[in-house]
């Protein structure tokens, strides 16, 4: 997502790349066409006896109506953009809440029903951390789903869910027994068992990822090849587990590559010639623009990965309830968090899959084209040679706003104007790791210490000193609460006085 005011800033030379965030690539053919119409009208009316000027009575009425409709179109698209941002915030909030319930409220001490003994601390920690990894995987799976990347074989997703069961029944390896999560991802059973046998034979059980295998044509189309320069500079996937996979892992982020066409829009027309000169096939590198430079929207795909992750989280919740390990309040918080994740992904899919009605978009665009086409005929008598730049400016402004609405209507792709889904996922990852780094110490170890002054500024003694001063009125059985409240009132008066500006 582009930072505010990307052009006029202290880093203007660096932000030249942000030119790709504009809609010039999408509107320059229309702007050029209407400018040529204005040029023809001006030349014919000036150098011939024929006058192409017509009455401008309809100009004001149609211009006002189109301006209001285009404003409504842009506002509606921005509402979808804003709602998408709010839903990702709710995913982050629900992920934090769910992780805190699992890490803090699920007890570490428990009985093992299988051995009739106690579960070790290591077993419980592995269980909790694995489920929190699934929470992290949920946001990543939603990101790939919204971007039309259906597979689970991504560098930032597969290591987090690779431990989930692959088959519906134990010791059953038929094709029909593969669970939906892996079946829709094209799991290769033979490679799966080969890798598992290699891991059992390996001493350290750590093998390199299988992304060194030859890349097929389908993998190229899905974006197997990534920018090595950017990867060396920023590689957040390096902190994830190293898990071998039966299929090559695609990059966590695979935006369209940048070419000179992104900075000089008219060069899009010569792109086939350049590609032939470089002896490159059209499908060697994914290119998400048409011959004129207009963005090609990715197709919508269905993904069941987020749903299945919430199913595993719900299964874990049911297991905790069956063992009686959750208090009612904690159980309610856990259910609400899982429900919030499910509601968020459902609403995100609604935004993704329900654009504005086709008839509305077509009628608005056709009306705008007709208005801009007849604009030079109506303003020639008043503007003369200025008809050409006036038409160009008007078409640039109106077509630009219309295209901006089209641009932000689906804010989940790789465009610079889209939401930074990778940033959202990395923030959730950092927060979940921060939660699991908390060791839940006994409150007595830090509350009643010399580093805590709970009654300041009314009483600036530390907690340990107040506890040791047994002769203080705080320790009187009957009147202690009176003196404590008196101290707190003194604190309030001093704070109220000091924090107010004179």
Number of strands: 2
Structural class: mainly alpha
The secondary-structure element order is HHEEHHHHHHHHHHHHHHH
Average predicted local confidence, pLDDT: 79
| Helix count from the secondary structure assignment | 17
Taking pLDDT < 50 over at least 5 consecutive residues as the criterion, the unreliable ranges are 203-231, 279-287
Quaternary form: single chain
List the helices and strands and how they pair.
Elements lengths: L23 H24 L9 H49 L5 E2 L4 E2 L2 H26 L11 H4 L18 H4 L5 H13 L15 H6 L5 H6 L37 H7 L27 H19 L4 H26 L4 H26 L3 H22 L12 H16 L7 H4 L15 H6 L11 H19 L4
Antiparallel strand pairs: 1-2
Fill in the keyword field for this structure.
mainly alpha
Describe this structure in words.
It is a multi-pass membrane protein. Keywords: Cell membrane, Ion transport, Membrane, Transmembrane, Transmembrane helix, Transport. It is found in: Cell membrane. By secondary structure, this protein is mainly α. Among the domains are: 134 residues, no CATH class; 53 residues, no CATH class. Helix content is 55%, strand content 1%. The chain is built from 17 helices and two strands. It has a two-stranded antiparallel sheet with strand order 1-2. Helix 2 packs antiparallel against helix 3. The longest helix is centred in the first third of the chain and has 49 residues. It starts with 23 loop residues before the first helix and ends with a helix. 25% of the residues are buried.
């Amino acid at each position: 997502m582009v930072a505010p005011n990307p052009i006029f800033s202290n880093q203007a030379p660096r932000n030249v790349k942000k030119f790709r965030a504009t809609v010039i690539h999408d509107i320059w053919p229309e702007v050029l066409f209407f400018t040529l119409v204005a040029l023809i009208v001006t030349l014919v009316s000036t150098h011939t006896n024929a006058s192409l000027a017509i009455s401008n009575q309809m100009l004001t009425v149609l211009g006002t109506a189109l301006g209001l409709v285009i404003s409504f179109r842009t506002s509606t698209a921005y509402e979808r953009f804003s709602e998408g941002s709010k839903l990702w915030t709710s995913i982050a909030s629900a992920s934090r809440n769910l992780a805190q319930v699992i890490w803090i409220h699920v007890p570490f001490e428990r009985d093992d029903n299988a051995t009739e003994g106690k579960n070790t601390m290591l077993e419980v920690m592995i269980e909790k951390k694995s489920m929190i990894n699934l929470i992290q995987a949920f946001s990543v799976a939603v990101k790939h789903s919204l971007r039309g990347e259906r597979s689970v074989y991504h560098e930032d997703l597969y290591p987090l869910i690779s431990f989930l069961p692959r088959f519906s029944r134990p010791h059953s390896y038929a094709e029909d027994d593969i669970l939906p999560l892996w079946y829709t991802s094209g799991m290769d059973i033979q490679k799966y068992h080969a890798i598992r046998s290699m891991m059992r034979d390996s001493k350290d059980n750590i093998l390199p990822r299988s992304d060194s295998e030859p890349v097929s044509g389908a993998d190229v189309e899905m974006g197997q090849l990534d920018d090595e320069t950017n990867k060396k500079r920023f590689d957040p996937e390096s902190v994830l587990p190293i898990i071998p996979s039966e299929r090559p892992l695609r990059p966590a982020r695979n935006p369209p590559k940048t070419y000179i066409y992104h900075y000089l829009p008219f060069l899009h027309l010569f792109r086939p010639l350049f590609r032939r000169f470089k002896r490159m096939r059209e499908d060697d590198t994914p290119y998400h623009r048409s011959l004129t430079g207009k963005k090609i929207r990715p197709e919508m795909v269905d993904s069941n990965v987020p749903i299945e992750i919430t199913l595993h989280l719900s299964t874990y919740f049911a297991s905790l309830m069956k063992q009686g390990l959750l208090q009612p309040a904690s159980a309610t918080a856990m259910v609400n968090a899982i429900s919030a994740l499910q509601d968020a992904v459902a609403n995100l899919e609604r935004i993704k899959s329900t654009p504005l009605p086709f008839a509305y978009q077509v009628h608005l665009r056709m009306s705008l084209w007709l208005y801009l086409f007849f604009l030079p005929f109506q303003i020639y008598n008043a503007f003369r040679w200025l008809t050409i730049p006036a038409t160009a400016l008007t078409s640039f402004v109106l077509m630009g706003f219309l295209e901006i609405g089209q641009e932000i209507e689906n804010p989940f792709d790789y465009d610079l104007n889209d939401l930074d889904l990778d940033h959202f996922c990395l923030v959730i990852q950092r927060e979940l790791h921060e939660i699991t780094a908390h060791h839940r110490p006994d409150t007595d170890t830090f509350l009643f210490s010399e580093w805590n002054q709970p009654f300041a500024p009314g009483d600036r003694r530390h907690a340990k000193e107040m506890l040791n001063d047994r002769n203080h009125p705080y320790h009187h059985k009957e009147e202690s609460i009176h003196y404590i409240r008196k101290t707190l009132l003194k604190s309030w008066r001093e704070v109220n006085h000091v924090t107010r500006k004179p």
